[in-house]
Structures are given as C-alpha cells and as structure tokens.
Amino acid sequence: MDERCKALWAKLSAALKPQVSTDTFKRWFSAVELIKATEDEVTFRVPNNIYQFWIESNHMAALQSAITIVCGAPRTVRFLTASESNGEEIGLTEPEKLEFPSNTRTVGSGVSLNPRNTFESFVVGPNNQIAHAASLAVAQAPARTYNPLFIYGGVGLGKTHLMQAIGQYVWNKKKTSKVMYLSSEVFINEFIDAIQHNTLVKFRKRYRQADLLLIDDIQFLGGKERSQEEFFHTFNTLFDGHKQIVLSSDRPASEIANLEHRLVSRFEWGLTAELQPPDIETRLAILRKKARALQIKLSDEVYQFLATRIRTNVRRLEGALMRVASFASLSGKELTQETIEHLLKDILLEERRQTVTIEQIQRKVAEHFDVRLADMTSKRRPASIAFPRQVAMYLARELTKASLNEIGDAFGGRDHGTVLHACKLVKKRMKEQDNIRQTISFIDSALQR
Amino acid sequence: MKFTATKEKLLEGLQQVQNVVSTRTTLPILSNVLLQAQEGGVSLTTTDLDVGVRGKFEANVEKVGATTLPARRLFTIIRELPSSEVSIEVDGKNAASIRSGQSFFKILGLPEEEFPPLPKFENAKVVTMRQKDLREGLRKTSYAISTDETRYVLNGVLFSFKENKLTLVATDGRRLAMVDIELEFPRSHEADIIVPTKAVTELQRLLTDDGDVKVSVGTGQIAFDLNNTLLVSKLIEGNYPNYKQVIPTETKERVTLERETFLNCLRRVSLLASDKSNSIKLNFTKNNIDITANTPEVGEAKETLPVAYKGREFSIAFNPEFLMAPLRNLSEDEVFFDLIDEMSPGVLKIQTPFLYVLMPMRISS
C-alpha cells in the first residue's frame, strides 16, 4: 500500500464509519487494504473470500457512497483476496520476461503454427476449392488481392489448417515478416490484461506492427464491446497500412451475434469464402492422404466404410482413421466391419445423432418463431402460425429423406400437395427477402449442429 | 432379463432415482435408468455424472440380467398402467416389453455397458450417523444455499467434520445458517467438504426418520449409504469461506418468540411488502414488537406482537423471505432472536445448536 492509497483509505474509512455500525466496521473493514486506485476503479485487498462476498452483498451501498463523498463520483470496486493478489504480483513481472524478437513466427500467443498444416497437406475438393484458392492467393501476395480474407465453416472443416498454411507460406518466403496467428479469445484476454496492467500502448504497438494478422474463431468477439472497439482500430490501422488480415469464424460475419455493424461490414469488405463439409470423394482422398502421411496401410473397404459413415467433420474422420489404424497394428487382428463398428461406436453414434428428424425441426422452428409445438400439427392457419409451419415443412424436405406424404403426415395429416406448395412458397420468399433467408439458414445451421 | 413386480414398488423405486436423470442431451445414455435384476430384486441407477443414485425394489426375478431404459418414459408408462402387476422382459437388443393387464408396451433401451459406473469408494473415510439428524440438519440449513453461480463455493452445504462434531453451513452472503450435530469419529476423519445443491436436494428426499446413514468421504467425492439407497456425488472443489467471521460475537438484546405466531405475523405483513424494496420493519418497544410493511401507492400492513422485551427502543428492517425461511424449516416451538442495533446482523437461535445470521436492510427514513 503506497502513501496515496493509505491516505485515500483513511478518508474513505472516515466517510464509511457513520454509515455502518461500529461492529460492522471493525469486523469487515478493519482488515481491508486499499491497494490500487485509478480514475474509475478502486481495488481492495481482503484477507479471504468471505470478506468479498459479505461486503458485496451487504455493504456495497455504504462503500459506494463513501467513495462518492471522497472522490466525487462512484468507482468500479474490485476485490482481491490475499491469495489471488499474490498471484497478481507474480503476473505483473511476467510480461517483462516475454520479449519477442522481431522475427518470431507467432507473437503474443502461446500457440505456434503447426508445421503439419500446410497447403501441401490440404486436400482440395469442390467443397473448399474457393477458400483454398483465395488462401493461396493471399499467401502469395499478401494485402494485394483479397483483404481481409474471411473464411467460415463448421467444426473440423479446415479453417485453422488454411490459416496456418497462409502463415507458414508467408513466413517461409520472407523470414523477417511479422506473422501473428492467434484466436480471438487470446486477443480478448490480452486486451483485458493490458487494461488491468495499464499496458495498452504496448498491446497496441504489438498488434499494429504485424505484417500478417491471422485471427481464428473471430465469433468469440461477439458481445465483447470494448474488445470489438479495440479490434476495430487495430483492423483499420493494419488495413490502412496495407497489411494482410485473415479471419475465420464458424458462421458468416452477419450472423455473429452482437457484433457491431461497422465490424461486420469490414469483415465482408474483402473476400468471404465458405468451407462446406466434404463430399464422399474428397473424404476418401483425405483418408488416403492422411494414411500415407502416417504410413498406415488399410484395405479399400475400410476407407470406403469410414468415408460413408463419417460425413460432417474432417477432424473426426482423421480421428477415426487413427483409431482403426492403431487398433489394427496393436492387435494384429483382421479388420471386419463389426470390429470397426464396435471400435468407433461413440463416433458413429454422434454422427447418427446429427441426422435430423422432422420432430426436431418442428421443435426448433416452433421455438424460433415462438409458437407452440402443437401449432405445427394443428388445423389453425393464421399467418403467424402458417408461415412457421411452412418453413418447418421446407426444412423437413431439405434435411430429411422423408417423402412428401410422410412430411404431410407428420404435420397433422396434410396431403403432399400442401407440402409441395409450402416448399415452393418458402423458396420463393427466401429469394425475395434477405431476412427470411437468413432466418432459415440460421435454423438450418442450429439443427445441423 | 425378466421380472414381475407390483406397480407400486416399481413406481416407488423409479421415483427415488428419476430426479437425477440428466437434462443435458449431450450423452443420451444419461437420460436412461440402469436396471439390474438379481435374485429377489431389481436395482435402479441413474446419474448425471455429478450426482448418482442407486435404489432397489423387490421383484420376482425370473431371469437375471441388466439393461438401460429411458427413465422419464419408463416412469410415465408405469404410472399409467391399469393393473397392479407389471412384468418387464428385455431381449438381447435391449428392447423392453412391458406387460400389465391388457396393456403392452415396447420401449427401446441402450446396452448396459454404455452406462457410466458409479464411482468406487476405496480408502474412504466412513462416518455413520442417524438419518434423522442429517435430515434435520440439512432442512435447517439448505434454504440458505447461494444460487449465484459466480460464487460456486457457496452453491452447496459445507460439511465440516471437526472435534467430534459435524457442522453444516450454508450461506449466500446475506444470511448464514449453521447446525452442529454431535458425532463420534476418529481424529483422522476430520475434513471440510462442500456438497453441491443437487446432491443436498436429492439427499433430503431420500433420508427418512429411522435408521442410519453411512457417509463415505473419498477424494473429490462423497457417498451416502441409506441401507437400500445409495447416493454418490462429486464435491465442489475449493475452500468454503471462513463463515465464523460472519457470526456476531456478542449481542445486546434478546427476545423470545413463539415460532408459529411470529411466522404467521410475518407472512401476513409481507403481503404488503413491495417487490422492489421488499422489506418489513420491526419496531421494538417495551414488551411489544410492531411489524410493518408498506408499499407506496398500494397500502400498508401492521401487526402487533406482545413479547417480553425491556431493551432499547429501535427499528430494524429485514427481507421478509429471508426471515421466514428458517422459521418455516425449524420445528421447535420457541425461537430466540438476538439483535445488536439497526445496522448489525440479527441472529436466530433455538435450544439446540443452530444459528441463523441475517443482515438487516437499510431503513431509508
């Protein structure tokens, strides 16, 4: 506690005393220490967490009013328990040790680029052709063609792989270039850290010096307003300085919840490339390539089986391959369909779970439009119910293998003509109205998850 | 697997375990109940990976075996069955045929091997106590558990085994309830553990007034063995705050109150405590307490309660819900209410080792 804090605490105590009973003051506040006071925040150190819980719950009003009397305005109050604050002191010295030489491949994160994630090891198929071509173009001529490049797609489809490939390509070509690869979560954490330790200038300098900034999983920025603002400025600085920015997300920028419009529009500025789940040929190619890299030999039937059964996620596909291969080499047994099925029981179950049923669709749609599930099958048809029902029929047609008649039956015994009409109508309205298209694709992706 | 049982027994068994069934859908097996038929009875197990319960019911087992069936569905079916005899037969593919009177149901289950086993308790510290004691103790404390998830160490009841005493504590930062239970155990069994809310709630349902409960404390987990039923739970990691700090060392005034009369007064007056301020005021005068509440633009209420009181005249305000909660959960006729002044916590006590500390609210005027 330095002199300034001591003096402030003395004033605060004086203002606090008349507001709480003597016993309360002695019991709860005599052991409190004021350790930090800034423009808008005061930090107290308390012996243990019961002090924090009890003061927060019971004496916050008194404390705040004392602060208002002494400082003229309320402040954000933070508590550190003794054990925590020790940790903090250690933390304070740490950033000094982490000096980054100018040619580091990764700056600011503990995550380094995985040397296995290169363009050579990426299997290109119709599902990811555009994303791959765009990434390659960006890597060959950073900040020249597409800036920013925004890659989005589901889990395990290769977003990280592509980003890291760009990073390695650029760095391998020119070892002095500053490549930064990190996830948005790291960005947010470091930003918070910087605010805490008053090292914002250093933080900004570090990010704004990058030649190539790769940020993974940008969707985590959603709802973090101050981080978004900081990122907005970082983005602008880099963009104006003709530095390449590559972002990835699990959904299109416009669908990231609570993301500011100015960021959305900037993300969509350059090129947006989608990664879709691979088709069967691509899946087979991935398996073979991976098998070759790992020097595994398996029969064609095994590849075929894995590729047909695991459809949605490349990471899972590779995991399954690893499991089958290690089983084969460890047990030395013949691989039959049954043994594989038994071996991959959990993965296959998970895959099966992702096949959507009509009931799930009805439930999701009803939930989204806030109508009752019963309305999906009822005879009532005001527009507020009829449209959601039509959307559900459309999705049932798109996402399940059910026939028109089966869908009609599931919606309270309607005939196939009604379903057909619903599908046509929804398709038409999707073409005409952007917001409807977005709503439906949102429900669609929620169902597939 | 094949067995027949009375509908009543089966239903009772399911009721004991079905509350634990997971609502999370990430692992489908967790919404199932594990049925294991042995000679003379069937055991039922459910778990959500944090809390698990195993119960037994009598049945005429024709063929031993085990399977898992969707718990909620099974329960609703059994409840609706017309006859008092139920027979359940499970084939090799875990499809169960349920017959009762004229009814027939077939429901599909999952294999027994997929069901996560309940944790084992080896080298656990075992303490045996009366079910009644634990039940009473939890009843007197559990309402004060915090629901604020950011203070996760408070989302449960502290079981503190120390000096031949089990102390149960619950607090949410505004009030604190504490009970001591006399108990004999070796020095080596002393420990402070936090049992999560869900386990406490389930345990309260299972405990009865007769018999003993065997408490086994393992690393990070606890088991309560109640003869026929077993409840296991993970413990909350972390240190429970030093609750003793909260308890006032000396109090100035004491009133003795009839619990039910006091509770009824509070209940009536609280009808006019506004949602926003939600406080009721206790005015202490000689041999009298006036309990008042008022909500601007709605109205006001006042009750007069004659008591033996000779102390200083003063007013103190409390959240009525917080003041009524312990009164509802105690069974004693008489309670003692100890106070210091209008800004210091009030303490409720009874003849037996129980303590409830409650922070007053600020009186605006």
Overview of this structure, please?
The complex is a heterodimer of chains A (449) and B (365). Chain A has 20 helices and eight strands. With 449 residues, chain A is α/β, with parallel strands linked by helices. Chain A has four domains: 3-92, GMP Synthetase, Chain A, domain 3 (2-Layer Sandwich); 129-275, Rossmann fold, CATH 3.40.50.300; 280-353, Helicase, Ruva Protein, domain 3 (Orthogonal Bundle); 358-448, Orthogonal Bundle (Chromosomal Replication Initiator Protein Dnaa, Chain: A), CATH 1.10.1750. In chain A, the strands form two sheets. Chain A has a five-stranded parallel beta sheet, sandwiched between helices. A three-stranded mixed beta sheet of chain A has the order 1-2-3. In chain A, strand 1 and strand 2 (41-46) form a beta hairpin. The longest helix of chain A is centred in the first third of the chain and has 23 residues, at 49-71. Chain A is globular and about 80 Å long. The model of chain A is unreliable at 85-111 (pLDDT under 50). In chain B, the strands form four sheets. Chain B has an eight-stranded antiparallel beta sheet with strand order 6-2-3-4-17-16-15-10. In chain B, strands 14-11-12-13-25-24-23-18 form an eight-stranded antiparallel beta sheet. In chain B, a hairpin with a 6-residue loop joins strand 23 (334-339) and strand 24. Chain B has three domains: 2-114, DNA Polymerase III, Chain A, domain 2 (Roll), CATH 3.10.150.10; 125-244, Roll (DNA Polymerase III, Chain A, domain 2); 247-358, DNA Polymerase III, subunit A, domain 2 (DNA Polymerase III, Chain A, domain 2, Roll). Chain B has helices at 7-18, 71-80, 131-141, 197-206, 259-270, 320-329, and strands spanning 2-6, 32-38, 41-47, 51-58, 60-63, 65-70, 85-90, 95-100, 103-108, 125-130, 156-162, 165-171, 175-182, 191-196, 212-218, 221-226, 229-234, 253-258, 280-285, 288-295, 299-306, 314-318, 334-339, 346-349, 354-358. Chain B has 365 residues and is an alpha+beta fold. The model of chain B has no long low-confidence stretch (mean pLDDT 90). At the A-B interface, helix 2 and helix 3 of A face loops of B.
